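Quick entry between incubations.
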Amino acid sequence: MYRYFLALRYLLARPINLLGVVGIMLGVWALIVVVSIFSGFLKEVARHLQSSTADMTAINLPEGVPFDEIRAIVEADPNVAACSPRIVWQGLVHPFGDQVGRAAPPAGMSELGAATPFVSVLGIDPDLERGVTRFRDWLDVLDDPTLRVADLDAPLAMRDGLPGLVLSRQRMAEDGVVAGDRAKLTVGRMRREGGREELDFRPLACTVAGAYETSYAGFDGMNVFVHIDTMRGFLDGDARSESANEVAIRLHDTAEAANTAARLQRALAEGVAGRGASWIRVRTWAEANAGRIGNVEHQRSLMKLVLFVIMVVAAFLMYATLSMMVTEKTHDIGILTAMGASPRGVMAVFTGCGVAIAVVGAGLGVAFGCLSSIYLDSLNKFLTANFGIDLFPVRIYHLRHVPYDLDPVWISQVAGSALVVGALVAAIPAWRAARYDPLDSLRNE
Amino acid sequence: MTRAILEASAVTKSYAIGSRSIPVLRGVDLSIGEGEVVALLGASGAGKSTLLHVLGLLDPPSSGRVLFEGRPVHDLPIRERASLRHRQIGFVFQFYHLIPELNALENVKLGTMMDRGLLSWMKDRRELDERARDLLRTVGLTERHTHRPSELSGGERQRVAIARALIARPKVILADEPTGNLDSETAAGVLDLLFRINREEGVAFLMVTHDERLAERCDRLIRMKDGVVVS
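Done. Structure below.
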């Protein structure tokens, strides 16, 4: 009993011990907040990426193989629910004629990628695309009549004699474009002529049908939609060519995506063998975005390592304060021994001090870490609105709020490490205390 | 003499200073009976305090035996020696050695915590608290329970130390110059208290002192010189 009692009283009698508590608390707090934000960011990015892409895509399909043949191969797989053809090409979006944008670009929009005229032009079949992505939902999120696509069932139909073009909301806002405006799309392709290949840029006048918006701003900034037949006619000279250089696929079971991708890779390679050079590649949505996800995961791992240093500094602080306490308490150690305390009991008193510091520090760190993570977005909005301080500029990261993901396993690991570090650090001065000769302190008054 | 409670048999103690061995006790034999008050006299350096520490199991003898109630105890395992020290032997020091963070009552109650676990202590806490208050009343500190050592006079601190030594109901108290740091009036009060406790509680005392007048009040007087008992 005296171990707990004295440990507590020694701690309470020395405000300097708060340094150890604060140090451990800060270490735990930082490890929880920063990692929870990174984990939330990772989760959010993955969710947004997944919601703005198909479960799987087969890319680099050879020219001249009709989509129906590809579809037959793809849909033969038991895990494939639906597929849709695409012609995906790089291009430029720019104003038509002497048209001038109407609206002033809102602040921060350029951070989302909408400032660049370089885009991926996605030629899609809207009816089939709805079966593999949330394309219709992306069109149905806007109420503004100047941005909204008028006919959700035929969003890419010809208007005023020109093909329909769907831009992202942010691009329309950035360029001051409204539905019904004209825009020019320039697409380059390799042209073979007389045995020579040369890059041929071709402009295409379009009517802006309206805007779309996914939950991943990074996707929105870089993609525009036209009808696949428009791209076929534009690139092949035949709107009914049935060609597709990419197929978007929806799966029954996304957990089986990797196996399905491997099967489809083999099936497509065999199915189109000898039909022209191509680098067919079947990628899951995670593989297609592995760079983005891996980058965040790597940063999160580095942050864990860096922030653990705070814990080590806190441990040194705790060691220093406990060492001072042991030196001050040599007389007490003598009298405690005379009263019947064993060396192990004396050690337990001072180890108890360290463990108590670590428990309180870790407890407060966990509590503040969780609360900070939960309320960081509100705090950030408050600071931005009232003081212009943006702690977490979410738009840079293509997000709309500060994300967080509190993982109980990580929180337990952080709290557990704090306790272990606290106990280990306290054990050193406590061991010294246990080795004191009680007679030294009783003699040398 | 009554039945021996604490005995030293041919006890020697030497300390090594560098390569030299300095003998402090050179074969001490003595015995303290139940309820007996024994004064241990001698000049500085005679080995009185060292003998006290050896008898109190704080310091092992270099040779010889220490017996408690006839049982050799000097070579018991460290935990058993600690337990014996707590249950059977009380200490009172010249400089009190109270824990400065605790008030008078808590310093006394600390003695009840040494061999009890948290649950056991919590179960009996009312009874233990009452006993500590009784002891403080016995030593005349009814009104000073909540005062810390820094807020007490020397005499009051020594009374708290005596109450703390008594809380575990020891059979013998080893007192190392208990009045050596007190003025004569306060010292007389503390001595009266010790003799009263001896009479009322039956606790034996071995008191190291330089004070011949104190020694005369004791049941027996042992003189030491150069590490041996001379009378």
